[in-house]
Write a structure and sequence with these properties.
The structure holds two protein chains of two kinds. By secondary structure, chain A is mainly beta. In chain A, 0% of the residues lie in helices and 57% in strands.
C-alpha cells in the first residue's frame, strides 16, 4: 500500500462513452502525475500537476482531459476514446514537483471496445 | 523521449540465484531510480542512487552507477519467487517527470 489509490481498478467502455478515472493520495504530496502503460512500451507521461496547476501536457490527445481540484485528488476524464487507448493508467504523486521518488497507485486497467 | 534502457529484456533464474539487470541512459542525471512492478499493478520504488554515488545497498538489493558509461546495474541477491516482477530504471527529466525504460521481466522459479 503506497498511499495512492485509484478507482476504478478495471473499466470497459465503448468509443462513445464518457468516463472518469479517479486518483487520491493520502501522503500530503503537492505533485501528481498520470502515466499510460501500454503493452511492450515504456511508461508514457501524460500530465503533471504541481500545486493544482498543470505544468505538463505531454502531447496528449484532447479526448483525455485531466482535472486536479485539490492537491489530494486527480481525475482523468475520458471521452470518445479509441481502441488503441486501451492500457493501464497509472497515477503517481511526489512530495513536490521534481522531488525524486514517486509513489504509484495500483492503476486502472482500461479496455476500449 | 525515452531515457533509460534496461537489459536484458527478460531474465529467468532459480530461487537462491542472483539476478543482475542493467540500465543505460543518454544524458546527464542527478539521480537514477529503480522501480519494481508486479504483473498489472503499480510501480514500487526500490532505491535511488545519486550521481555522486557509485554503489548503494538496500537489503538484498545492490545498485551501482557509472556516470562515465551512463549505466547502472541492479543486483538482487538470493532471489525468491516473490521477486518475480518487472524492474524499471528511471531518470528525472524536464525537472519534474520520470523517464522510464521498457523494463526487465524477471522470473524466479522455485
Amino acid at each position: 500500500e503506497t498511499g495512492v489509490t485509484q478507482t476504478p481498478r478495471h473499466l470497459v467502455m465503448g468509443m462513445t462513452n464518457k468516463k472518469s478515472l479517479k486518483c487520491e493520495q493520502h501522503l500530503g504530496h503537492n505533485a501528481m502525475y498520470w502515466y499510460k502503460q501500454s503493452a511492450k512500451k515504456p511508461l508514457e507521461l501524460m500530465f503533471v500537476y504541481s500545486l493544482e496547476e498543470r505544468v505538463e501536457n505531454n502531447s496528449v490527445p484532447s479526448r483525455f482531459s485531466p482535472e486536479c481540484p485539490n492537491s489530494s485528488h486527480l481525475f482523468l476524464h475520458l471521452h470518445t476514446l479509441q481502441p488503441e487507448d486501451s492500457a493501464l493508467y497509472l497515477c503517481a504523486s511526489s512530495l513536490g514537483q521534481g522531488k525524486e521518488t514517486q509513489y504509484f497507485g495500483p492503476g486502472t486497467r482500461l479496455l476500449v471496445l | 523521449s525515452q531515457q533509460g534502457e534496461e537489459d536484458p529484456q527478460a531474465l529467468s533464474i532459480q530461487e537462491g540465484e542472483n539476478a543482475t539487470m542493467n540500465c543505460s541512459y543518454k544524458t546527464s542525471i542527478n539521480n537514477l531510480q529503480w522501480y519494481r512492478q508486479n504483473s498489472g499493478r503499480g510501480l514500487v520504488h526500490l532505491i535511488l542512487i545519486r550521481s555522486n554515488e557509485r554503489e548503494k545497498h538496500s537489503g538484498r538489493l545492490r545498485v551501482t552507477l557509472d556516470t562515465s558509461k551512463k549505466s547502472s546495474s541492479l543486483l538482487i541477491t538470493a532471489s525468491r519467487a516473490a521477486d518475480t516482477a518487472s524492474y524499471f530504471c528511471a531518470t528525472l527529466y524536464s525537472g519534474y517527470a520520470l523517464n522510464f525504460g521498457k523494463g526487465t521481466s524477471l522470473l524466479v522459479t522455485p
